[in-house]
């Protein structure tokens, strides 16, 4: 150093330059001549290098650079400082403005050091000189005897100096080891990761959308297994997804998704046992056509036939029929690819407990690769449609529920109208009757067309069907109570004129048009042991729900759909029978709805907010009273810690959550198949990610150089492999 005493303005560097300060005191200077904050920072982060007494300024610089480089690397990594630490010298006796191209104002000891960034990270800043000296002594190893370097005997100084060098060596090679390990792990991860792409996925109603970083589409079961193994080994989320139809985006996960769309083969049809084995990506529509030549069909169907069989069963999809179970209960065997236990073959004869839990496991216990389902003989259904008043429903409900194999009610809010749709198998040997209806199609739509001409005269109704007319009507004022009431009255009249019969194959009758884009919230609750032993909780629930809508002026559009099913033996099904209950159980499903007829984001947001309030009010008023369980494709993870805690407590009351989590710990210990919905409602709240965490961001920053180097290494390996292969004539 040109002067025997000096000051180094480290704070100025941190604030203005973003660099670490490396300094070396002159041979005969005392460390105590430095300001306290410099002594602490220098000894703990960057390090103080003291060259031999007979040395040149150049040697001092070299010693400072060599002995401080490793700590400087650590400093830059910890604080995100750019590469290239600036080295500055300051003369304590010079002007406060400094000199030269790197001059920075010198901070005097009298200035407040507590504002320093260094203070916040716990590396100094105590204005008390004695405390600073004490910290400094501890950092330099005062326990070995003596004060700071430059004081005490040469032997103790040498001992402490050796300790500092040893610490720096360990730090240097520790950093190198960490870097090497990280780089190797990343390279290995990149070499073995499944082929994927970034993709934006949207659900059927366009109410949920996710930008997925890693969208994997395996072409065969082996590729599926490798993808799951990779995700588990490297702790990368890879959530299985089917057709992405669920209103709540149950399968969505921004980190990674595993699409089964290419695993869509029908593997085997056993006509004698009346079973079919399919890959999980096969769609319901395709499966029906594959079964038709064999004279078989599924027991029941949901409203939409674009669902994949995997998602169809995993979320507990259902049709309607008071003596028919949900679709998960018709699964008799499955191949489950799990992160923790590999590939499992499950059935009632092979690990029945896991089998039942996994049939309706919401994709959280494993990826259903192959599924065997129980079928029934293909049959036609004769469907009857009519309307009734609330009083007529109350008088005939028990008889209707037992008279029809499939039955559903469509309640029209703010009216006294209920639409009943019931169907039974056409007797064997009977000829399908022609459809019967009093009104023509034009006459059926006339009430809705007339209202549309009144409220939206610029809209041409020509060629519009029922669902399109309803959308155009609601688009005028979707949240205005009186307008929605008028729309519901027109819809009720449409259904009154639509009374009649029709006959077709069961898959054609049970599937129906759900309308346009919409929000749906569907729940289920027990209403007896069987249709003959109905407690009538189903009608009481509807009465209270409709009264709530009227009393609170909710602009609820039609319909509120009510369906029935037996219970399921799958513990995580919304209609699982409790405990050792041996009765089939009778459960009612009720779904409320609000349509999204507008493409304007602000209007859609208003409807979304109104619907959330509508669903929350239903749950608040009737949830505990009827012990409702929400359909897995319609349940939402609430916002806010208190709301999530309440939702978890409710889940624990309704489902065997502890048993489910115990299975998850075995089958998916790292939670790679889950997403925020699963973890937030059933799993580990610590795994819920509302966005990139501070730790994730820090790790991304720290590991970026290693990822960059890893990419180069992979490219070099590929080039070398190509060169060797060429030189050996393809032998490699």
From TrEMBL:
Residues 121-160, 559-581 are annotated as: Disordered. Keywords: Oxidoreductase. InterPro entries: ALO_C (IPR007173), FAD-bd_PCMH (IPR016166), FAD-bd_PCMH-like_sf (IPR036318), FAD-bd_PCMH_sub1 (IPR016167), FAD-bd_PCMH_sub2 (IPR016169), FAD_lactone_oxidase-like (IPR010031), GL_DH (IPR010029), Oxid_FAD_bind_N (IPR006094). One of its GO terms (cellular component) is membrane. Residues 208-378 form the FAD-binding PCMH-type domain. Residues 563-576 have a biased composition (Polar residues). One of its GO terms (molecular function) is D-arabinono-1,4-lactone oxidase activity. Transmembrane segments: none annotated. Its cofactor is FAD. Pathway: Cofactor biosynthesis; L-ascorbate biosynthesis. GO terms for biological process: L-ascorbic acid biosynthetic process. It holds the Pfam family FAD_binding_4. PANTHER family: D-ARABINONO-1,4-LACTONE OXIDASE, L-GULONOLACTONE OXIDASE. This is FAD-binding PCMH-type domain-containing protein. It comes from Mantoniella antarctica.
């Amino acid at each position: 150093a040109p002067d025997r005493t000096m000051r180094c303005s480290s704070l100025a560097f941190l604030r203005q330059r973003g660099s670490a300060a490396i300094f070396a005191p002159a041979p005969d200077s005392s460390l105590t001549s430095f300001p306290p904050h410099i002594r602490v920072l220098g000894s703990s982060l960057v390090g103080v290098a003291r060259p031999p007494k007979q040395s040149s300024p150049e040697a001092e610089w070299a010693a400072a650079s060599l002995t401080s480089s490793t700590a400087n690397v650590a400093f830059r990594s910890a604080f995100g400082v750019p590469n290239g630490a600036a080295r500055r010298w300051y003369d304590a006796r010079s002007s406060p403005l400094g000199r030269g191209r790197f001059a920075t104002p010198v901070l005097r000891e009298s200035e407040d050091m507590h504002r320093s960034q260094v203070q916040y990270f716990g590396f100094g800043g105590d204005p008390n000189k004695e405390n600073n000296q004490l910290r400094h002594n501890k950092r330099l190893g005062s326990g070995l005897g003596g004060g700071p370097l430059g004081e005490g005997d040469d032997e103790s100084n040498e001992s402490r100096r050796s300790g500092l060098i040893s610490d720096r060596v360990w730090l240097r090679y520790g950093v190198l080891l960490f870097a090497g390990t990280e780089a190797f792990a990343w390279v290995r991860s990149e070499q073995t990761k499944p082929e994927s792409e970034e993709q934006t996925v949207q659900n059927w109603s366009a109410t949920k959308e996710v930008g997925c970083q890693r969208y994997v589409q395996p072409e065969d079961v082996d590729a599926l297994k490798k993808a799951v193994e990779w995700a588990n080994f490297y702790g990368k989320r890879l959530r299985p997804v089917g057709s992405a139809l669920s209103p709540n985006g149950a399968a969505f996960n921004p980190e990674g998704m595993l699409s089964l769309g290419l695993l869509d083969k029908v593997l085997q049809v056993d006509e004698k046992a009346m079973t079919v084995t399919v890959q999980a990506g096969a769609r319901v529509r395709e499966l029906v056509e594959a079964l038709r030549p064999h004279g078989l069909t599924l027991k029941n169907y949901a409203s939409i036939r674009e669902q994949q069989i995997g998602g169809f069963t995993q979320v507990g999809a259902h049709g309607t029929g008071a003596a028919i179970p949900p679709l998960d209960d018709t699964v008799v065997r499955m191949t489950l690819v799990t992160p923790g236990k590999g590939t499992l073959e499950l059935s009632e004869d092979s690990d029945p407990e896991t089998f039942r839990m996994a049939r309706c496991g919401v994709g959280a216990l494993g990826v259903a690769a192959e599924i065997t389902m129980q079928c029934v003989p293909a049959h036609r259904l004769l469907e009857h449609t009519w309307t009734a008043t609330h009083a007529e429903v109350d008088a005939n409900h028990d008889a209707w529920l037992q008279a029809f194999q499939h039955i559903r009610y469509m309640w029209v809010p703010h009216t006294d109208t209920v639409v009943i749709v019931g169907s039974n198998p056409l007797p064997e040997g009977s000829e399908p009757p022609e459809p019967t209806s009093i009104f023509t199609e034009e006459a059926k739509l006339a009430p809705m067309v007339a209202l549309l001409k009144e409220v939206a005269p610029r809209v041409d109704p020509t060629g519009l069907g029922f669902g399109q007319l309803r959308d155009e009507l609601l688009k005028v004022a979707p949240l205005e109570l009186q307008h929605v009431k008028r729309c519901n009255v027109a819809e009720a009249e449409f259904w009154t004129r639509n009374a009649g019969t029709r006959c077709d194959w069961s898959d054609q009758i049970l599937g129906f048009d759900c309308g346009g884009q919409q929000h749906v919230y569907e729940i289920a609750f027990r209403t007896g042991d069987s249709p003959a032993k109905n407690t009538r909780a189903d009608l009481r629930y509807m009465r209270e729900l409709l009264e709530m809508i009227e009393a609170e002026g909710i602009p609820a559009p039609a319909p509120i759909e009510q369906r029935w099913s037996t219970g399921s033996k799958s513990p995580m099904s919304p209609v699982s029978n409790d405990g050792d209950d041996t009765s089939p159980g009778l459960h009612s499903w009720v779904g409320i709805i609000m349509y999204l007829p507008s493409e304007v984001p602000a209007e859609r947001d208003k409807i979304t907010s109104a619907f959330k309030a509508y669903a929350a009010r239903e749950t608040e008023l009737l949830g505990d009273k009827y012990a409702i369980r929400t359909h897995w494709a319609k349940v939402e993870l609430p916002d806010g810690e208190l709301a999530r805690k309440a939702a978890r407590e409710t889940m624990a009351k309704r489902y065997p959550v502890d048993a489910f989590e115990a299975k998850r710990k075995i089958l998916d210990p790292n939670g790679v198949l889950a997403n925020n919905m699963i973890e937030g409602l059933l799993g580990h709240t610590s795994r819920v990610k509302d966005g990139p965490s501070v730790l994730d961001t820090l790790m991304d920053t720290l590991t970026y150089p290693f990822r960059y180097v890893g990419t180069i290494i992979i490219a070099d390996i590929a080039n070398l492999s190509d060169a060797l292969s060429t030189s050996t004539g393809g032998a490699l």
